[in-house]
Amino acid sequence: MGTPLLSAPELTIAMATLPQWSRDGDAITRTVQAPSFLAGIETVREVAAAAEAADHHPDIDIRWRTLRFTLSTHSAGGLTSLDTAMAHTIDGLLG
């Protein structure tokens, strides 16, 4: 059995601890501006390393200096504690 979906109350509590993130259907997203293209690529590299270590990988969209991270547990069909934990990890890396 995989990681269970967060209930509505659990998701409300989790999102209160992630003020930079927004709900987008069965996912949460955060968009940031990097100071330069290369700084953005380095940020993506750091997030990728953390995601690999956690075995939970975000969708990442790179548009010049704009980075958009999207988290959802596809195998569970929505948001789980894996997503909120990875969001906190990303927040820590972004500072």
TrEMBL record:
InterPro entries named among the record's database cross-references: PCD_sf, Pterin_deHydtase
Gene3D superfamilies xrefs: Transcriptional coactivator/pterin dehydratase (3.30.1360.20)
UniProt source species: Nocardia alba
Family: Belongs to the pterin-4-alpha-carbinolamine dehydratase family.
Gene Ontology annotations of biological process type: tetrahydrobiopterin biosynthetic process
Coiled coil: none
A GO MF term: 4-alpha-hydroxytetrahydrobiopterin dehydratase activity
Enzyme Commission numbers on file: 4.2.1.96
Keyword vocabulary terms for this entry: Lyase
Protein name: Putative pterin-4-alpha-carbinolamine dehydratase
EC top class, as a word: lyase
Lineage: Bacteria, Bacillati, Actinomycetota, Actinomycetes, Mycobacteriales
Catalysed transformations (reactions): (4aS,6R)-4a-hydroxy-L-erythro-5,6,7,8-tetrahydrobiopterin = (6R)-L-erythro-6,7-dihydrobiopterin + H2O
